[in-house]
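Ticket #4471: structure export looks truncated?
Reporter: QA, pipeline team
Priority: medium

Steps to reproduce: submit the single chain below to the structure queue and open the exported record.
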Amino acid sequence: MALTPAEKQARYRARQSALMQSNPDVIERVLLQDVQRAERGELSDQERIALADQLADLAMTHQWRAAKLAKMAMKIRYRE
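Actual output as written to the record:
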């Protein structure tokens, strides 16, 4: 059974939304907006703690990627 144009459009929009949510720049932008809300006192204690955990996780991910890229650069530089 073929999909209707509306169903195709709904699936396309769902895929686009998933891609945008997995984009690191979008994730970082959303987190930074939440940080601004926290600085203005608009978040509860639980929301602030959850935000802090998310920021720490993101920082660790960036640190891990940076170390991995540095290791690759060393291998390429010294032809190992």
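Status: closed, not a bug. The export was complete when the record was re-opened. Leaving a note from the reviewer for reference: The two ends are 55 Å apart (CA to CA).
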